[in-house]
Amino acid sequence: MPRPWSKQPLESLDADQLAALARRREQIVAAAERLMGGRGPAVTMAEVAAEAGLGMSSVYRTFASKNELLDDLAGRRAERWLGIWTEAAASDDARAALVGAMWTFGELEAVDPLADVVRDYVLAHRETFGPVMEAGEAAVRRAHDAGLPRDITHEDVIRAIQVLSALPRSPDGSWRRVMAIYIDGMFAERDEPLPEAAAVRTGPDAEVLADDDAPDGDAPSMHAEHQHAG
């Protein structure tokens, strides 16, 4: 089933054109992963093009904007996240499933240099990644129904991983100890509610990437790329 963040190829493409477009797409994504993994979203499309060994027009024909490129980077991870949260939400042991999901996300972030960039992008674009957010919220609701005592939300879980995000990439794996302490606190019996959290910005003002290095005039369209793929 297509996800909201997935782009479907135009029916006019033949097999060779689709293969060429897919190769170029992977070439650009790999370059963006390498650059953003070290520097974050400040990387420009010109730098991505140079890293990929492609011209700017080829990059913009494949990804019409930097946010479209990040949609792809985030979407690849979102598919996996959706599976984790969906499995947790369907588990007979909802509390154990929530804890298991948190450990799984911690392990993923331990080896993903784009974890911080992608997480913030997904939170700022809930309308695009709605299925992931809904599955996570369902898993947390079921944990509450099963007796999770604190007023923990799905976003609390995401932000907890964010706070720990510097630790997973440390060589000693110290994040596991901190995660265990956090999880113990989740299940502590307390009468007082947790502090209110500030709302996360969404929409255009929360864009992680801006097209400050786009060529003059409109960027080449995806349709133009489809016509010339091959």
UniProtKB/TrEMBL annotation:
Q: Which GO terms describe its molecular function?
A: DNA binding
SUPFAM superfamilies, per database record: Homeodomain-like
| Region described as Disordered: spans on this chain | 194-230
Gene3D superfamilies reported in the protein's UniProt record? Tetracycline Repressor, domain 2
Per UniProt, the keywords (alphabetical) are: DNA-binding
Domain HTH tetR-type: residue ranges: 22-81
Protein name, per record: Unannotated protein
* Originating organism: freshwater metagenome
